[in-house]
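hey m, so remember when u said the tokens were messed up on ur end? i reran from scratch. heres the input so u can diff it against urs
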Amino acid sequence: MPFIVYIFSLSAFALGLAEFVPIGLTEVMARDLALQVEQAGGAITLYALGATCAAPVLTALTTSWPRRRVMLGTVLVFCAGSLGAAFAASLWSLLAARFVAGMGHGLFLAVASSTAARLAGPKQAGRAVAVVFAGFTLAMAIGVPISTYLGGLGAWRPVLGTIAGFGALGFLGLLFGMDEPARGSGPAGRDSAVSALKALLHPALLVAALVTVLGYAGSFSAYTYIAPLLTGVTQVSIATVGLFMLGYGVLAAVGNLLGGRLTDRLGADQGSAIVLAGIAGCGLGLWGLVHSALAMAVAVALLGLFTYAAVPALQARLIGVAEQHAPHAHGVAAGLNIAGFNLGIALGAWSGGVTLGSLGIARMGLTGAGLALLGLILLAWLGAAGSGRAVEPAKGPGH
């Protein structure tokens, strides 16, 4: 395995921290900046929107650019946005910085996954992608709970600054350790970008991505404001919230592995249906069992399991659709997949905030269950209509 793939993993670790650490810090950030909790939650929404915009569009536009140059540029953008968020003095400066950081996130993951596979070669391509995203999963399992604990002590700005530092380490590793991978033959320059953009707008790919959007919106409608839900309704201490997030992160790592096996065994369509139903069930649990700390610990951990089991299943389905309708646009499909997850996170954070402000924080799980069920209904309709015919299982792990 080329050593540079492990540098990609380090960068992915920083991206995982940046995306999910603020979930555990919404109350602390809101208090420090004199905001409502749902306003602080906008930091999660804007980051995800930045990744959503950058992943498919910039992947298509930079398809003929040198991979090393693109990756160095995206990490610089990510570091600048993360550092800006750490020093933000107002809501608007925080949101702008988070959007910029998210743009670097989206493009980097789209490029890193395909580049790692190319550098490792066909026999180790799946393992290379797994190594890259091991950093992302490690951030969820270990980095986020520790950062949540430290941020809960009032030190959220140093936490975000440290994330920028991890990104800087990744930049140095790329600068001194990465050679430009060999490129295959094909259309270059403007023609390549135009072809990629056309593939991006293919209706079949967009509808397939909508299933991902709804599933992740259901998950993050419930999870984005999990800290104030636990402290305000379940009545646990802010320091204990990190333990709930540790359970979420550990089972997220397990879920990623189980999701891949489930997809290989049952196929992408059936695997996707199972995990979407699981997310909906967890949302109902977070609504109906909200007054029991033990039950909430189980529900939060299972939400992590099903949310990240959804990753390989939903990606396998989207890539299968791309193979049928746009077989030469794998990079765009990877970008669209990342965009679908991040748009779901943004929609979930927004819908959770609306629920918090209108129906009360205790009902956010119910909103999440409803969105996940919509994704399940769309998946069933596509299967019945023949638009989403059975997809071959993923060739290796995927995000």
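this time it looks ok to me. The chain has 16 helices and no strands. if urs says something different then somethings off w ur setup not the seq
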